[in-house]
Each structure stands twice: as structure tokens, then as C-alpha cells.
Amino acid sequence: MKILLTGVTGYIGKRLLPILIQQGHSIVCAVRDKERVTIPNSFKSKVEIIELDFNIKESLSSIPLDIEIAYYLIHSMSNEKDYSDTELNSAKNFREAVSKTNIKQVIYLSGITNSKALSKHLQSRKNVECELAKGDYNFTCFKAGIIIGSGSASFEIIRDLTEKLPFMVAPKWINTLCQPIAITNVIEILTKALNNPICFNISIDIAGKEILSYKEMLYQFAKVRKLKRLIISIPVMTPRLSSYWLFFVCSTSFKLASALVESMKIEVVAKDNIKDYMEIELISYKQAIQNAFTKIQQNEVVSSWKDSNISGRMPFNISDYINIPSFGCFVDKRERKLKDIDKCLSKIWSIGGKTGWHYANWLWRLRGFMDKLIGGVGLRRGRTNTDSINPGDSLDFWRVIYANKDEKRLLLYAEMKLPGEAWLELKINDGVLIQQATFRPNGLSGRLYWFLIYPIHVLIFKGMAKAISS
């Protein structure tokens, strides 16, 4: 079948794409930025990439008329103030656009919305569901709560809290009930619903076997990791204080922390049983954690929430930043002759995350901590995969703009809080390492910032070039 897949650069979409291809379907990936999509060569004959923005009606004419199924996996929480309006408008434009095609079914993954009082985040999901349900096609809506899998936001937050805090004083929402589901089961459900008449025109909750409080989830996680933990809840932490608490302890962005805290106050327990609609073996919470760590240990993390726009300070098209500006910019450029090109290239491709930055890592960590203090992303995002780097990936407080190992070039764009814009380029030409840091200041504050930290830049970048080239 010909399938329109939205949200292909997101956590679910990245995992769903290879499964659909392996099942023999032809996939049309609808993305805002083609540069963010990395398709393995073995899949390229089965994939068509179209560039559009569902908030811009004029761009939707590129949707093929012969699509039969569409997955709607779009979220816009990166826009903190008006993401509800953005999501609803996107859903309306999507519905109107696909209704002009040969579409038979639209499958939407939402959140469990059984509570009378919904958070802004969950209410937005509910509004999108109602909008998509108006279409002239068979509509399938699956509603999940906490999704557990390697790289998922929920898993990473639980991991950060459990592994970093032996003793935890937590907000009262730590006792809220939820019903987590393994990412394996989510993907299985999404694929089994494809062109399945029993799933036409339904809206059902999908969840795992157990109903657990967040505290119980943390304790069970600790047991799997063979850790002893003590958690005490107190009623005095306001939602804003809770958001800051989550933000500083975990690798999450403050926007995501705020949205999660608001939702964590609301019970997300399923009222439906997915087994009434399809044969599926639900994975337990503990088994989902064990599966996630198996993927991490085998370096097989397919997707991570950290690669989405919400993990950074702004959504942008990579192509807009691939050409480094020169006018009005400050530049620190280092060149070093190489004795071993392959060794140098390996160091470039291992940069960030647990490896660090090859020189003065304590200064990088200090800069990350300072960034966190003022609401930036800090260094805690790390990297999705220890071996590979792809455009769109997060790399500590950088975003990968260009990564081509054959060309021996890596280009990063800074997502830390800055009075301007910054790029870091590492490339090898004719046996020479060229390392260039570029900063485009925003007014007087940007220029003052550059000159104030210039001595530190000299120290870091000189030492970094030497360490990478040696």
C-alpha cells in the first residue's frame, strides 16, 4: 500500500518507518526539512520524501493523490505559548488535504484523555482527535499514556531521576496513577491497525498490563538496575517548582518539563483493552525497561526524543544554517597537519556525549551547567548513538547540521542560550584538520560576550584541535 507518514523525524516515526518498509509498503515521508531525514540506501527505492508544512496550506499540494493510508504523528509543543492553536490548525489542514486524495484510513497516536480536567498538552491532543475525526475516511485513534523504550522522553526522565538521586524529595504528583506501555507494543499496534476493518472509526486507549504510580515506576526501575532508592513526596512543590526540579535533574528541556508536570497531575489509566481489537502480547513495565537497556547496550537506539525540535531552543530548517555566514562574524580557526587521518576522523565522529570534547571537559560541563541555569539545554542531551551522527541529531548543546564521514566534515549549530548564533565545523582537507568556530553576535551584548569569553575560547579550541589531531 502507499502510505503517507508524518512525523518521520520524531521518536515514533523513526521506528515505524523501517517496519512499514519491511512489510512491503511504499512510503511517502512528509517533512518540513528534507535535511533532517536519513534513509538507509537499502530503503531508498521504497521511500519518497516530500517537503511541506501542515501549517502552510499552499505547501500541501505536493501530497500524492494515490496515497491510501496516512499516519498522523505530528506534535508542535516546541512552540510554548500557542502550540494548541498550531496543532489544531495543522490537523485541519491535514484533514482537508488528504480528503482530496484516495485516502482510506488515517491513524493517529494521541494521549489518554479520560480525565474531566485535562492539561493543556492533553487537551490539545483531544482537540486534534476531534478535528481529524471529521474527515471523509476511516479514522483510527490510539491513545497512549507513558511510552517506555530506549530514547523515549519518559524512559530517559525516569532513568535520570533514579540513577542520579539516591534520595528523592518529590512533588505530590509522584503518587499519580498511570498505565505505561512498551514502545514495542505501540509500534505493533500501529502496524496491525493498518487497513484493518476492526480498527476503522474507533478511538481507544492503549496501555500495558499494570497500573502504577510514578513512585512505583521509579522503584521498579531501581530494582531492575539493582539500586536502592528512597522517595518521599511533599505537597508544597508548585507546578513551576516541579518543572524546575525536573529540568535541572533530567536532560529534558524546560518546555517539555513544564508540559509533563502539568500532565503528570492527571491520572492516565486506560478504560479500553486493546486485546479486544487485535491479538497482542503486552510487555510488562519491567520487561520494557530491560528491553530498553538491551538496545542501549547493543548501541541500537533507533530514535530519541532528544532529536526532536522540542529538545532544543528553536525549531529550524537545517538547510537554513548549512552555509556558515562570514559578514559581521567572529571566527576562531585552527589548522593542524595530520599524521593519522583515520584516527583523527574517528575522534571527530566520537565527539560529545560520554566521550566529551577531547579537551578541558570540565569547562564544557561548566558551560553546560551555566546554560541550564538560564533555561538552556545544557550538556545532558548527550548523543543518540555512539557510532553514528546524522543531520538533525542533538549532540550535547549542539544540533548536527551536516555530517558526512566520506567527505570528512561535521558541522554543528549551537542550541545553548547565546546573544547570537554559533557554528562549530570540523573537517579534514588534504591531510589537514580544519577546526572553525564562528559566532554571529546579536547587537552589543553579543560582541561583549565574545570578547569576555575570548580567553576561554582560545584555551578550549587550541587544546581541542591539538587533542583531536594527535
Q: What order do the helices and strands come in, and which of them pair?
A:
Blueprint: E1 2-6, H1 11-22, E2 26-31, E3 47-51, E4 69-72, H2 83-98, E5 105-111, H3 120-132, E6 138-144, E7 147-148, H4 153-164, E8 167-171, E9 177-178, E10 181-182, H5 183-192, E11 202-206, E12 212-213, H6 214-224, E13 230-234, H7 239-249, H8 254-264, H9 285-297, E14 330-337, H10 341-349, H11 361-373, E15 394-395, E16 398-404, E17 409-414, E18 420-429, E19 432-441, H12 443-469
Parallel strand pairs: 1-2, 1-4, 2-3, 4-5, 5-6, 6-11, 7-10, 8-13
Antiparallel strand pairs: 9-12, 14-19, 15-16, 16-17, 17-18, 18-19
Helix pairs in contact: 1-5, 2-3, 4-6, 6-9, 7-8
Structure description:
The protein is an alpha/beta fold. It folds into two domains: 2-306, 3-Layer(aba) Sandwich (Rossmann fold); 312-469, Alpha-D-Glucose-1,6-Bisphosphate, Chain A, domain 4 (2-Layer Sandwich). It is built from twelve helices and 19 strands. It has helices at 11-22, 83-98, 120-132, 153-164, 183-192, 214-224, 239-249, 254-264, 285-297, 341-349, 361-373, 443-469; strands at 2-6, 26-31, 47-51, 69-72, 105-111, 138-144, 147-148, 167-171, 177-178, 181-182, 202-206, 212-213, 230-234, 330-337, 394-395, 398-404, 409-414, 420-429, 432-441. The strands form five sheets. A seven-stranded parallel beta sheet has the order 3-2-1-4-5-6-11, with helices on both faces. Strand 4 (69-72), helix 2 (83-98) and strand 5 form a beta-alpha-beta unit. Helix 2 packs parallel to helix 3 and helix 7 (239-249) crosses helix 8.
